[in-house]
Amino acid sequence: MRIIAIANQKGGCGKTTTAVNLAVAFARKGYRVLIVDIDPQGHTTLGLGCNPEELDISIYEALTNSQIPISKVVRRTYISGVSLVPSNILLSGADIELATLFRRECVLKQQLADLGNIYDVCFIDCSPSLGILTLNALVACGEVLIPVQTHYYALEGLRQLLETINIVKERFNRKLQILGVLLTFVEGRTHLSRDVQRQLREFFGELVFSTVIHRNIRLAEAPSAGESVITYDEGSRGAIEYMQLAEEVSNGKTKNRTPQESLIDL
Ligand code: ADP
Ligand code: MG
Questions:
Q1: Contact 88, 127 (CB under 8 A)
Q2: What is the C-alpha to C-alpha distance for residues 137 and 245, in angstroms, rounded to an integer?
Q3: What is the pLDDT of residue 151?
Q4: 228 near 21, Cβ under 8 Å?
Q5: Which atom of ligand 1 approaches the CA of 217 most closely?
Q6: E strands of the chain, at which residues?
Q7: Is the Cβ atom of 232 under 6 angstroms away from ligand 1?
């Protein structure tokens, strides 16, 4: 199973939107997809039509109770081919419970390994922090996809993220690779957006996906309907761009740069 974490400790940069829509796009291409919500805000859960407040079991139990296999938590979604490990606010207490646990950074990795080969690809939607939950995601995954909001302060905070990725790679997960940097909220017509895009492409080079995600109102509307944009409005620019990204992610090999190289000059 290919495991891709979607991470950036900055809130509102498009992590959840990317996780949900990539998951649906992959399912449309025939992949068996698992999406893991590891954010206590439960936005991915909500975005896939499942109410976080009504869960009888969630990722919280799988992370804090070794007796509960994650397979007990997985549920189907309204989208054929997409299964979900849901989350809710309970998860915000997990860091304290995990604090005393031996190998607390490996809990999710172990749980996903126990699933075997039921799914082809798994997306993990991270929370906006670099705490133990995101650490679990980075240890469990093979690749990390970094959405970056294309605005003036785009590079701010990326140093800590890349440093964290490096530390994880050195200590816990030698195979960890950056899958790519995804430019989100792109506004094609403004000079500022073009300048920031150029700056990011100069800095990250090959790591930046060819596909960019433009600011698109349908992407903002779809979650309130409990839907992905691909099911909400298939012809919208947001849907088309996420289908394109799925094509790039499924075809392209992981860019073979290490996080260390990306740290130069940041
Ligand atoms: P994160 O998970 O990183 O906090 P989200 O994916 O939840 O970010 O996005 C933050 C908000 O912006 C959400 O309301 C989402 O619907 C909206 N959004 C995300 N991407 C776009 C986009 N390209 N254009 C317009 N709105 C977007
Ligand atoms: Mg989110």
A1: no
A2: 21
A3: 86
A4: yes
A5: 25
A6: 2-6, 33-37, 75-76, 82-85, 121-125, 143-149, 177-184
A7: no
State which H helix or E strand residue 45 sits in.
helix 43-47
The alpha carbon of 94 and the centre of ligand 1 are apart by a number of angstroms equal to 25
Structure-block tokens of residue 107:
């809990």
**CB half-sphere exposure, 203, CA atoms < 13 A:** 21
Distance (Å, rounded) from C-alpha 231 to C-alpha 153?
Answer: 32
Question: Ligand 1, from 16, 17, 209: best to mutate by most atoms within 8 Å of Cβ?
Answer: 17
CA 48 from chain center: how many Å? 14
For residue range 139-182, list pLDDT tens digits in order. 999 999 999 999 888 888 898 999 999 999 999 999 999 999 99
- Assign domain 2-265 to its CATH architecture: 3-Layer(aba) Sandwich (3.40)
Q: Say if ligand 1 is within 6 A of residue 12 CB.
A: yes
> Does residue 11 have a pLDDT over 80?
yes
Walk across the sheet containing 121-125 and list its strands: 75-76, 82-85, 33-37, 121-125, 2-6, 143-149, 177-184
pLDDT band, residue 240 (cuts 50/70/90): very high
Q: What is the pLDDT of residues 255-264, one digit of tens each?
A: 544 444 544 4
Tell me which of 33-42, 152-161, 196-205, 256-265 is least confident. 256-265
